[in-house]
Amino acid sequence: MQNDVFLPQVVALLHEGHTVTLPLRGRSMRPFLEDGRDKALLQLVTTPQVGDAVLAEISKGHFVLHRIIAIDGDHVTLRGDGNLGVEHCTLGDIRAKAIGFYRKGRTTLDSTDGRKWRIYSWWWTRLYPIRRYLLFALHPHVPRFLRT
């Protein structure tokens, strides 16, 4: 099912008071969240904050799960942890907040308000100036023996 059809149904479930576990697609939140491997637990967000990983509709039918890096009035700037560029939306375009992630096939939730996630977030966001080199080194095109 295409995201522009599926994700509005997810948002409808959130508005009914449910939480939703969403399989992650794409590489934009690498290196810690992987395409097809990990899942996000989403809930409606009331007051988004800088640092939150949110589901946002950045254009009609185009959704991303990225971290908020700036809020200026109604204007929100987002960046995927594995991206160098940014996206923009408004506060009204934010549909949900990730409250945790199921990573590496585990059944236990890594909560976004837990110590592990906060430490990772603090370090990774501050490494932005050198992130392009770290992402390059972690990219699958680099032979495994060079990544170890």
Average pLDDT over all residues: 85
Low-confidence stretches: 142-148
- Biggest sheet features: 8 strands, antiparallel
Question: N- to C-terminal separation?
Answer: 37 Å
SS element count, helices:
4
β-strand amount: 25-35%
Element pattern in H and E: HEEEEEEEEHHH
- Please bin the fraction of helical residues: 25-40%
Q: How many E-type strands?
A: 8
From the alpha carbons, calculate the radius of gyration and give it in angstroms: 15 Å
- Helix-strand category: alpha+beta
CA-based shape = globular
Notes on the protein architecture:
The protein has helices at 3-15, 115-126, 128-138, 144-147; strands spanning 20-23, 39-43, 53-59, 62-72, 75-79, 87-90, 94-102, 110-111. The protein has 148 residues and is an alpha+beta fold. The chain is built from 4 helices and 8 strands; from the N terminus they run H-E-E-E-E-E-E-E-E-H-H-H. Residues 142-148 have low confidence and may be disordered. The chain is globular. Helices cover 27% and strands 32% of the residues. Strands 1, 2, 3, 4, 5, 6, 7 and 8 form an 8-stranded antiparallel sheet that branches.
SSE layout:
Elements lengths: L2 H13 L4 E4 L15 E5 L9 E7 L2 E11 L2 E5 L7 E4 L3 E9 L7 E2 L3 H12 L1 H11 L5 H4 L1
Antiparallel strand pairs: 1-2, 2-7, 3-4, 3-7, 4-5, 5-6, 7-8
Which keywords apply here?
8-stranded antiparallel β-sheet, about 150 residues, globular, alpha+beta
Please sum up the structure shown.
The chain is of the alpha+beta class and 148 residues long. The protein has helices spanning 3-15, 115-126, 128-138, 144-147; strands spanning 20-23, 39-43, 53-59, 62-72, 75-79, 87-90, 94-102, 110-111.
